[in-house]
């Protein structure tokens, strides 16, 4: 039989209110009493009835997170930061995988049915212009936070809907300043998907920054994707050209790792003959073919959770966050060999 709060109180000779306050670490309960209550609770296997508590305070202690997958570095980084922050706050996370608009909406409905207080969402790139999941959440009036990208019909006036994105234009300028200081004037660019807002912003930053610094771009605009094999494939094409770049700027670390592999396979030296940069500071920046110079961002998952939690606790509206990055210089960039 489950041990109730009343059972603990009777066994300790205390009121139910005093036991409840002791378990919540209330300041008006003495340290000795708190220690007695916690020891008795542990001995008898008591745990709080969160369902009953949620009915009282109208907070379930549950949030939902919808991702296109967990295997990708993108999904792992968002989910890792958010779940760590939620755990520290005593909030549980329902995680769902959705690879289509229909699945996204289904996952959101299921999470709402379980009592999720808010929905956190890393959308597929193809949901840039419209999101069925957003429509479901908006009708219910729940808070919703997008990571990295968001539908075109979401604007600053959307109230309880917000987003957390990386400052990819700023990331482009950090890398270009670094390469320019090292004397590079011919660069190639391998971006992600042009339909993704963050990669489109990165591309614009590169295009404008190259012109502003008197640099030239070799190979035109290459939006190759997000995987190492795509960076490797495009790098091989660039290396076959008569005019080669002296530096390669990539939209993420995975593509940069693939590009570096192709460069090394051609017998070229990194960075003496060609420099390579990424974005993200993920595992591949440390454990790829060479340690990558990259742009590191704070955890979007943690930033998004903190944004929602502040509004949950203090009220107000969620304002969008644009997270700034910092340049991390490693072995993949340097001055050209004379």
Question: How would you describe the overall organization of this protein?
Answer:
It is a single chain. This protein is α/β, with parallel strands linked by helices and 338 residues long. The chain has three domains: 5-48, no CATH class; 60-167 and 299-323, Rossmann fold (3-Layer(aba) Sandwich); 168-296, Response regulator (Rossmann fold, 3-Layer(aba) Sandwich). It contains 13 helices and twelve strands. The strands form three sheets. It has a six-stranded parallel sheet, sandwiched between helices. The radius of gyration is 25 Å and the shape is elongated. The model has no long low-confidence stretch (mean pLDDT 87).
CATH homologous superfamily of the largest domain, by name? Answer: Response regulator
Series of secondary-structure elements, N-terminal to C-terminal: HHHHEHEHEHEEHEHEHEHEHEHEE
The level 1 CATH classification of the largest domain is: Alpha Beta
Number of strands: 12
User: Largest beta sheet, briefly?
Assistant: 6 strands, parallel
Q: What is the count of DSSP helices, taking H or I runs of 4+ residues?
A: 13
SSE diagram, text form:
Layout (H helix, E strand, L loop, with lengths): L4 H8 L3 H8 L7 H14 L5 H8 L4 E6 L5 H16 L3 E6 L3 H13 L5 E3 L10 H9 L3 E4 L13 E6 L1 H14 L4 E6 L5 H16 L3 E8 L4 H12 L7 E4 L2 H13 L9 E3 L5 H5 L6 E3 L3 H15 L6 E3 L2 E3 L10
Helix pairs in contact: 1-2, 2-3, 5-13, 6-7, 8-9, 10-11
List keywords for this structure.
13 helices; 12 strands; single chain; 16% strand; four-stranded parallel β-sheet; Rossmann fold; alpha/beta; six-stranded parallel β-sheet; elongated
